[in-house]
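Hi team,

As requested, here is the filled-out complex form for the coenzyme A run. I kept the field names the same as last time so the parser does not choke. Let me know if anything looks off before we queue the next batch.

— J.
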Amino acid sequence: MELSESEGFRLRKAGIWDIDELEELERRSFTFGRFSKSILLGFLRHPFCTTIVIERDSIVASAIVLFHTQGTEIASIAVIPEERRKGYAGRLLEEAENISRRRGILSLSLHVAVENDAATSLYAKYGYNISERVRDYYGAGRDAYYMVKKLDDPDA
Ligand SMILES: CC(C)(COP(=O)(O)OP(=O)(O)OC[C@H]1O[C@@H](n2cnc3c(N)ncnc32)[C@H](O)[C@@H]1OP(=O)(O)O)[C@@H](O)C(=O)NCCC(=O)NCCS
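And here is what came back:
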């Protein structure tokens, strides 16, 4: 299903048929802690998960987002190296927020490796605050920040 159109790229939900491109995006984006093909397929089939992609001639960016009743979890976000700093990751975060609002979910969270300055800066720019440092989240000696964003309650 298409979510919206914009000049030069298309934002849409991914389907099972996108698995090879998503696996390639994962391979090019992460040096450790990559999701395997079977885990990516698990996300695509998961009833509470939406994988949002940005597509030009092919997929250039993706966000794997889990919508729990207690809050939205950004499980992964990735942009191919040559398309970075063009605002794609920010656009994906905005879309995750839009879907959350439509579902009445007002809290978003994620984990990010403490040494991942690019991603930590991205999330800070989009209003996520560090809530805690989680020891060994990605394995021994690999800590994560747990970051949270609260959306305004339209009924408050
Ligand atoms: C982190 C990542 C998703 C950012 O994607 P992106 O499309 O380049 O990000 P955007 O263009 O939307 O950047 C938005 C803001 O994030 C911050 N940011 C992004 N990349 C940055 C970098 N390399 N250094 C510092 N700040 C950065 C900036 O504040 C930027 O705003 P600006 O360009 O106006 O300064 C991308 O670098 C990536 O895929 N990295 C590898 C995978 C990864 O680490 N994913 C996160 C896992 S938690």
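Two things worth flagging: The chain has a mean pLDDT of 94. The two ends are 32 Å apart (CA to CA).

Thanks,
J.
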